[in-house]
Amino acid sequence: MNDSCCDPKAEKHLVIVGGGSAAFAAAIKASDLNAKVTMINDGLPIGGTCVNVGCVPSKTLIRAAESLHRAQHSPFDGIAGSGRVTDFAAVMQQKRALVAELRQAKYLDVISNKQSVRLIAGRAKFTSPLAVEVNGERIQGSHYLVATGTRPFLPAVDGLAASGYLTNESAFELDKLPRSLIVLGGRYIALEIAQMFARFGTEVTVLQRSSRILPTEAEDLTSALTGYLEGEGMNIVTGVDLQRVERDDSGVVVHATVQGVAREFRAEHILAATGRVPNTDGLGLEDFGITLDTQGFVAVDETLRTSEPRVFAAGDVIGDPSFVYTAAYEGAVATENAFGESKSRDYTALPWVIFTDPQVAGVGMDEPEAKARGIDAESSVLPLSHVPRSIAARDTRGFVKLIRD
């Protein structure tokens, strides 16, 4: 079979399944390459995770909580301040307005003037390696991009599903501030949400399965951050093995063992932030030889091509790294490769950030990664207590680490 990208007379038509950052970057790139685009979206509204239930709502709420915290805790002599939440529902409504504004301005308006882009609301399913069906319509393109993203993962804990649990999606829609909250998980989503609610005034307990939060990061980093979060009143418990969850008149009850000792935790609400699962079920990918990994993520090569040469995948649906900017980058690279290029994704100098306070950020390899690659690296650490800018700001939490060969 001849690939249509190599036939100048064949119509270039990219069919995109998904409507988030990877999908939109792909649509824009395909339009620039004079290709026809059909984008099919279901589930979250247009814009996907970032604008609807991820980056935008979390960061504006984190900033709102930070403004309250700063008002209550001045580090300067002779300055006293105070702050309180007078209307939590108003905070959430302002967040919703921002989400709607940015969804329109950054996504819908971007493609509204592109005549080559058709947007369809509905759930797509592959009916052959090179055809999808949506709303009873069969659509055939020259190339395809799967960019359906992920959703929250719920661990198999007895009683959790029936307990009325929250996720990042539902937590950002609460109109009443919880009195208390148990957060399951200790990675970046869990910690950002936990600190946000704690600063709003919620009593927060973090339950983490591993021996420390952010277990894939360096121990000096996680130890320091644990101390800062506990210093704000958060209860961080590690080495937790969840046994069961139940709900009674006072809220939820988590039964667990902590380093082998039985313990019980109570709160008004429980929030599961224990990872993500890909939105690949029901797409029909495996029926036509498109390989998924053991967790259901779409398997791709370095050019973002799947096991079917004219089907590509990009964004969270292919697994880590799961960032909005990597999703957009992958969407554009996949589209270029679909129509004639042969580019490999390159994450040699990938920046990342966790929006706790203090923030945690990095770029490049850490010490274990360098060692695994046979690099004889050394590290230099500069505590912020030695940085005049931090001293002047009366905030010397944290450090800068340079890892070098």
Question: Can you describe this structure?
Answer:
The protein is α/β, with parallel strands linked by helices and 405 residues long. 29% of the residues lie in helices and 25% in strands. It has 10 helices and 21 strands. It has helices at residues 21-32, 48-53, 55-72, 88-112, 168-171, 188-200, 219-231, 324-338, 367-372, 388-392, and strands spanning 13-17, 36-41, 117-121, 125-128, 131-134, 137-139, 143-146, 150-152, 180-184, 203-207, 235-237, 240-248, 251-258, 261-267, 269-272, 276-278, 311-313, 351-354, 360-363, 378-383, 399-404. The strands form 7 sheets. It has a 5-stranded parallel β-sheet with strand order 3-2-1-7-17, covered by helices on one side. Strands 11-10-9-15 form a 4-stranded parallel β-sheet. It has a 3-stranded antiparallel β-sheet with strand order 4-5-6, with no helix packed on it. Strand 13 (251-258) and strand 14 form a beta hairpin. Helix 1 (21-32) packs parallel to helix 8, helix 3 (55-72) packs antiparallel against helix 4 (88-112) and helix 3 crosses helix 6. It is globular, with a radius of gyration of 23 Å.
